User: Fold this.
Amino acid sequence: MHPMLKPALRRAWRGSGTVQFGVTPAHAVKVGPMDIATGCFLELLDGTRGMSLLRAEARALDLKDHQVDTLVARLMDAGLVDDIRAGGPEADALRSRADVLERHRPDLASLSVVHSEPGGGLRRLAARRSMRVQVRGAGRVGAAIAAVLSGSGVGRVEVLDGGCAEPCDVAPGGLPASAVGERRDSAARQLVRRSSPGPSPRSVQPAAGRAGGEPGLSLIVVAPRDGLTGYVPDPRTAEPWITSGTPHLYAGVIEATGFVGPLVLPGGTACAGCLDLNRRDRDQQWPRMLAQWQSGRRTAVQACDLGLATAVAGLAASHALAFLDGELPASTGARWEAALPLLDWRSEQIGAHVGCSCGAGGHTEGVRTSGAGTAHDTMAG
Assistant:
């Protein structure tokens, strides 16, 4: 092990005997008591020394071997230590791609803060390269989501949409102006390739039961250009995903209102069918109105503000990446909404309906855990 204090966490002395790592309450940690010798030892934790060399150099600071081992262990328990050699074979392969890794420095720093174990950040970043995500929609929201996922290291990002790109599809981070007139799916594929920091690994392991080496879908992001079909999804469209157990996340903009969620875990959280049944229970006129909205003349231009669309795309991509990295983001079984002009993000829990065929109504939905709201303490020894 070559311990390194996580460089993403800023360090400051709170007083003569306590050091705080990190600024924000979500990830800050206070370490104490801390004397001058121990404070000097912290400077040695830069990833260039193994434990044997650290113990040897610490003796010059009058620190005993067991003090060094105890301090490093407690810093690790507090999530403050990384190991530049940890993460497994996939992480080693990523380290060999200096050009790709350099693009991912900020992502890796963020992952190291979020995931406390040494090598946890690089292991998750490397794991993204073998994942396959499908984005349904190549408008202002969907195309930007696909670009962010590809740029964040997801190895295979597919975009499904029809027709040709129009001027209203163009957005910073999404389809460029040069794509107008091209097939949307072709333009989106080019966007995904440009956004990727490098080619995905060639040796992708096939999913169980799949031929040809094609990995199964890790996630589907539903972000149609028509915000209504994302806000009020058709349960029939989602039936194959429920049957195959494929997680899927809804996102989009409708009538100057952005939304992210729900993230559906088939059989565990509310699905499109649950959404529909819940609405019918609350409003007897809902089926009548929905039929009119779906069959009536559509407006020529969606009310999809560029700033709001970009915010939704960023939030949806972040939720998707959190899920791919093994977490349950706040959109799990819930929907987040913000409407112009105030943009006050609010969440609504969506309960699984007992009458839905997805079966989630008989199960406990995923429970998320969150960190403390203030810096927590760890004893230095």
